[in-house]
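A student in our group prepared the protein record below, which I am reviewing. Here is the record exactly as it was handed to me.
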Amino acid sequence: MELSLGADVARLVNPDDLSGFVVVLEGDEDPRPEALAAGGVIGFGDHAWVRTDALRRLAGAVATSEWEQRFAAMLDHARMRGWVDDEQRAVRGHVERRQPTEAILANGDPA
């Protein structure tokens, strides 16, 4: 699962892949406060602390009861490694910077 942060936007990519968690900065600009808030980011540096309720919200319709069970298991695994702050209700993710990729529609045209 990736929390992707652009300058002005936050979105969850591959929310059904709960085998890991990374925070991706899109492009060269750091995310503005609005994007950080939308993504639930409460601490930001080499790692980011992200509120778990924001991840649930951004997962949208993918966040079924089965997903919630798997998400809880992911958090339990992260908690054992010190990557969960229960007081802040946040999980730590490694921060990576990537250049944004152009979206391609199903018919092959650029979005």
